[in-house]
Write a structure and sequence with these properties.
BirA Bifunctional Protein, domain 2; Rossmann fold; alpha+beta; binds adenosine-5'-triphosphate
């Protein structure tokens, strides 16, 4: 497996991920996604949204605000329970999560540690122009609560019947104590969460169902089966709201670690919000003429972690005619660039102009780029490294036979295709 240093360097070099505020020395564990990163991230989100909202008829989308009334976090338990136990090293002053320490000494300098104390992971900010306790609010540490507090709104607006889900993608913030491993544990990150509301008696069945569905989502997008597994939480590891929870873990270079959690949250959240807000959040079951608080099955994934796992999983190095070739074998849905149009000779205006015209024709739904900033060998290498699916080369013969060479990223096989057939050819390949 590729080491993390290679991935970090590729991310910087090819514009996937940059350190946030880099010119000012950065901000720890906060990251910016560059031109290629923005594409890949969007493609991951699109694939998730399509699989849940477009390809099914039982899930609605939502886009709730990051800032919420602080009472939400009291009801959800985050104000009291969303905390890690932390210890300080009395010698080097570094901070650690006490549950991650193997012994009672500082892992960096062997110094003595302070007694563990609770540290809430929510970022505080204030609303309005007067600072003080009354104006204090939080940046959401998960997107899920936006869904629960809108449960009744969505039921009424969409006339949904159980079972049904609400899906949401958005930023979340956690003031993590221990960070590192590149983007794996960031302080600002993005989640893709879906709350699936079911009759309580069906919860176990739907739980098993979503475990399978979510594993299949990763493998259908090309992630290798052997690098994924499910791990069930022990009873003492379960979050305060969960009855059962499995993590989908990926085999990162630093070990197996969580990509996504799938939890049976029971009726905890709707009950809590109903009690604390005084509003009725039950569901009226027309069949039994009774009101019921649905149970919730929640697949909750991190986009940044999926991004990192897809990069690691698709990275490969090959020897081609004695030379090293680096390829990102991303699936066609995820590849940031679907095709690159390259003129074989960049000093021949007719070839350049033909290549630019072809590129213009192909642009639109898919990201297609033109590049003539290096020799053809270097251009191929650059496109392979960012996972571009097809390289279309315009050469001297193209001027007369009106055909171009299309090179497949993985097999490196080349097809000679008529310019008039190119759009159709590409659309067919990308289907
Ligand atoms: P961990 O145990 O790794 O701290 P968690 O169990 O607290 O994660 P959840 O609260 O279940 O995480 O959040 C759901 C998903 O959000 C995680 O599976 C992960 O993909 C993502 N996530 C959570 N915290 C972070 C973070 N600090 N940086 C990036 N992604 C995160």
């Amino acid at each position: 497996m590729v080491d993390l240093a290679k991935i970090t360097s590729l991310c910087k070099r090819r514009g996937f991920i940059f350190q946030s505020s880099e010119i000012y020395g950065g901000l720890a564990s906060v990251w910016d996604y560059g031109p290629m990163g923005a594409e890949l991230k969007n493609n991951i989100k699109k694939a998730w949204w399509e699989s849940l909202v477009y390809k099914r008829d039982d899930i609605e989308g939502l886009d709730a605000a990051i800032l919420m009334n602080r009472e939400v976090w009291r009801a959800s338990g985050h104000i009291t329970s969303f905390a890690d136990l932390l210890v300080d090293c009395k010698n080097c002053k570094k901070r650690f999560r006490s549950d991650q320490l193997k012994k009672d000494k500082c892992p960096e300098c062997e110094g003595a540690l302070t007694e563990p104390k609770q540290f809430n992971l929510m970022f505080k900010t204030s609303v309005g122009s007067v600072e003080g306790k009354g104006s204090e609010i939080f940046l959401r540490p998960e997107t899920a609560q936006g869904i629960f507090v809108n449960f009744q709104n969505v039921v009424t607006a969409s006339r949904r019947k159980l079972p049904f889900g609400i899906a949401q993608i958005g930023k979340a913030y956690r003031n993590e104590i221990t960070t590192g491993n590149f983007t794996f544990r960031s302080r600002e990150f993005e989640q893709m969460e879906m709350e699936y509301f079911v009759y309580p008696e069906d919860a176990e069945k739907w739980y098993e169902y979503w475990l399978k569905e979510r594993m299949n989502w990763y493998t259908a997008l090309g992630m290798k089966k052997e690098n994924l597994h499910l791990r069930e939480h022990e009873k003492d590891e379960l979050a305060h709201y969960a009855r059962r929870c499995h993590d989908i873990e990926y085999k990162f270079p630093f070990g197996w670690a969580e990509l996504e959690g799938i939890a049976n949250r029971g009726d905890f959240d709707l009950n809590q919000h109903a009690t604390n807000s005084g509003k009725d959040l039950s569901y009226y079951d027309e069949a039994t003429k009774k009101r019921v608080i649905p149970f919730v099955i929640e697949p909750s994934g991190g986009i940044d972690r999926a991004f990192l796992a897809f990069l690691i999983d698709s990275y490969r190095e090959e020897k081609v005619r004695g030379e090293k070739r680096v390829v990102l074998g991303l699936s066609k849905e995820l590849a940031p660039i679907k095709a690159a149009v390259l003129p074989l000779l960049r000093n021949r205006p007719e070839i350049v102009s033909m290549a630019k015209n072809i590129c213009k024709e192909l642009r639109g739904k898919n990201r297609v780029v033109y590049d003539d900033t290096a020799s053809i060998g270097r251009l191929y290498r650059r496109q392979d490294e960012i996972g571009t699916l097809y390289c279309i080369t315009v050469d001297v013969d193209s001027l007369t036979d009106k055909k171009v060479t299309v090179r497949d990223r993985d097999s490196m096989k080349q097809d000679r295709i008529g310019v008039d057939k190119l759009k159709e050819y590409l659309e067919d390949k990308l289907k």
